[in-house]
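Course exercise 7: structure representation. Students receive a sequence record and must write out the corresponding structure in token form. The form below is the worked example handed out in class, using Secretory carrier-associated membrane protein (321 residues). Read each field label carefully; the graders check that inputs and outputs are placed in the correct fields and that the protein name is recorded exactly as given.

STUDENT ID: A-19
EXERCISE PROTEIN: Secretory carrier-associated membrane protein
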Amino acid sequence: MNSCNSRSVFIHNWRCLIIENRLGIFIFCLYFLSVSNNACFVQEHALAQAELLKRQEELERKADELDRREREMQSLNQQRGRKNNWPPLPENFPVGPCFYQDFSIDIPVEFQKTVKIMYYLWMFHTVTLFLNVFGCLAWFYIDATRGVDFGLSILWFLLFTPCSFVCWYRPLYGAFRSDSSFRFFVFFFVYICQFAVHVLQAAGFQRWGNCGWISSLTGLNKSIPVGIMMIIIAALFTASAVISLVMFKKVHGLYRTTGASFEKAQQEFATGMMSNKTVQTAAANAASTAETSAAQNAFKGSLSSPAPTWGPSHRMQPFPN
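STUDENT ANSWER:
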């Protein structure tokens, strides 16, 4: 009996110990979960606070940039306005600069790098067109039938250099300067055409005036030094095409973050057309011409209408008695 009682007591104590351990483990697990939840909450709170501080710093930086640009614009206005500084020409040159360009004043900080890269891309393409003239000249030197390519290379250099600057680079510069949706759309339309020109120049079809890959392989068969020179120019045209595609995607991504849209572009176009003095003068002249012609037609119609005739039926009858 004593052994049975002692065994039952031992088993009872062991069960109590296990139950207490389970309760302790359960309480420990609850404590661990609460601590981990608190840690996660504290971490999320810290991340949210850091994000808010980052946004606040960014807003403060943008505000400081706007204040700085406003001060610079005021100082320039006090100095009798901004003077054109591009292209940089000597003071005694008979023709002065045509455009004003200053990235630090006109372009916001977050867009300055992109606009500068596009400016350097335009310069890179201009240098490539200049080298293309010498490549076509060397090709014409070894093959007298390539005079058309040499003449077209000069034409492309004289045509594409100013047109690319005015038609897609300046609209891009103005779009980022004034956040203009209409200028963005002008840039996209012209730049797609410019990319097509880059691809054609890299291909280098014969009698098109470009030292592309097809023309380079043709020139390589006649002269190895001239062919190598043309291959280098073809590689430059290819690099222009690839960089243009990459920058097109980059500018399009920035365009989507600026809040520009097709509706805003239409509104800007309509506002610009209505505020244009030439358009206003033409509309006023058209309206006055229309009014004058309408009055003349009405006057002629009144003169050409027949006069009323008085017959027996129109005679005055005496009043009845």
